[in-house]
Amino acid sequence: MKAINHYLVVEKIKEEPSTVAGLIITENIDSDNRYIKANVVSTGNLVEGIKDNDKVYYDKHAGHSINYKGKHYYIIKSGDIVLVD
Hints:
Layout: E1 7-12, E2 18-20, E3 23-25, E4 35-43, E5 55-59, E6 64-68, E7 71-77, E8 81-84
Antiparallel strand pairs: 1-4, 1-7, 2-3, 4-5, 5-8, 6-7
């Protein structure tokens, strides 16, 4: 699978539940977090500054999901990336 143009294929990174004062904070509870951490699987030919296997943060409302060969990926535009780790 290869992204084209200004698109990226990413796979969400599952964050381990953290604890605050003995309470377990999960992905579902942490709804105030606007950005999602992901691993870049494929970058389009027009994407600059981001390469395959980079860790990125993108807006949680961006993109669309796709199932490919039994795995769940997200297709987002390079403009939706806010941070490269």
